[in-house]
Amino acid sequence: MSIERDLVPSGLSYVIEELPLVDHHVHGASTHDLSRTAFEELITESDRPVPQWMTQFDSQVGYAILRHCAPLLELEPFCTPEEYLARRARLGAAETNRTLLGAAGIGHFLVETGYRAGELLGPSGMAEVSGVPADEVVRLETVAEEVAAAGCEAGAFSRRFEEALWERTRTARGLKTVAAYRCGLDFDPAPPTPGEVADAAGRWLAAGGGRLTDPVLVRYLVWAGIERGLPLQFHVGYGDPDIDLRRADPLLLRGLVELAEPTGVPLMLLHCYPYHRNAGFLAQAYPNVFFDVGLGVSYTGARAEALVAESLEVAPFAKLLFSSDGFGPAELHYLGAMSWRRAMTRVLSGFVAEGEWSPAQAVRVATMVGVENARRVYELGAAEPMGMHTR
User: Fold this and answer.
1) 270, 279, 289, 353 from 316: Cα distances, Å
2) Of 15, 70, 190, 261, which one is least surrounded by beta carbons within 10 A?
């Protein structure tokens, strides 16, 4: 996909627009129609009801939907939320998903299935609707909770979990942990002993084996994931109020990064806002660390250019990836890709216009970040030629 010829800014924009992006961390689109309340609750990271005196459309992501998604649904840009949602309801979930996922220009989805999976399209559903390949990313905590729900003695937990993990990941491309939500990233980085795991499992299972928050078991899951050998994704930074943002700084993972480095397993730092510069430092310092600014790009809307520019400051360009973290409304999948393309075009065009980069270098970096880095890390094989994907 390399392009060596010089390109004017319009040419750079065309190349970035046509990249068949690899969305290396995404959730499925909603399988059912959404009421206004449900829609607004899904375009914010807040888990609280939307106050009656406001609307989530009055936000960067809300304005981006009305500006950029409305024309795809055959509405005027900047239509009202009422007009937008009425048109969406007339089209229905299936047609809305087909339109917006198709317009995103994704070449491959890596779909994380560990949260509210019954409400969302799985990898096969995403592939069917979008017409491009989709593979699974397995959430460690969900596998552990399924083992507990099936019935398990404390002393057998580690064996049962490892068996379940290998079975669940026979065709998966990656793993994910939500340690930042469950206990914070400031956990002891060393692998727990078998005795520590059995004791912690006993306490957890005796309490009903529900949501797994024990730091010892979280450590165990992380190290079991590293032993499995697939790229391991960590939620970092911005998320819903269930996360203590103070304990979601990737710098807290430095000890784990160093202990895991000899394994060669890629550690993928997801989203990272507002700690994206810290993630960039870790990606520069350690060969096994990669990062993206996925969730932040969609939610910063018209300010995404600043976030993307900051993500390009210190990390080697081979360590930065694209993701949308789209979840639920397909608008978020589309906006993740559209906003990233627009921000990258503006940032890289500025570097070229200032004489700091050549056009060929700008194309190379956009292609690495948007496509090639993920294909290398997740062993996805070669990309389709540009222009061959569905738009």
Assistant:
1) 16, 12, 11, 22
2) 190
Instruction: Let me know: does 64 contact 339? Beta carbons within 8 Å.
Output: yes
Torsion of the alpha carbons at 71, 240, 227 and 322, rounded to the nearest 10: 30
Token digits for 90?
């007339």
Place of tokens 């910063």: 300
Say if residues 132 and 108 touch (Cβ distance below 8 Å): yes
Query: Nearest-CA neighbor of 98 among 324, 333, 294?
Result: 333
Task: Return the beta strands (E) in the chain as ranges.
Answer: 21-26, 106-112, 134-139, 174-177, 232-236, 267-271, 289-291
Cα–Cα distance measured from residue 357 to residue 83, given in angstroms and rounded to the nearest whole number: 44
Question: Is the separation of the CB atoms in 122 and 156 below 8 Å?
Answer: no
What is the pTM (predicted TM-score) of this model?
0.94
The span from the CA of 134 to the CA of 27, in Å, is 11
Q: How far is CA 232 from CA 153, 175, 287, in A?
A: 27, 5, 14
**Residue 323: strand, helix, or coil:** coil
At 180-237, the pLDDT tens digits run 999 999 999 999 999 999 999 999 999 999 999 999 999 999 999 999 999 999 999 9
The full length of the chain comes to 391
Structure confidence by residue, pLDDT tens digits, 38-88: 999 999 999 999 999 999 999 999 999 999 999 999 999 999 999 999 999
What tokens does 53 get? 């005196």
What is the number of helices (H) and of strands (E) in the chain? 17, 7
Euclidean distance between CA atoms 133 and 130, whole angstroms: 8
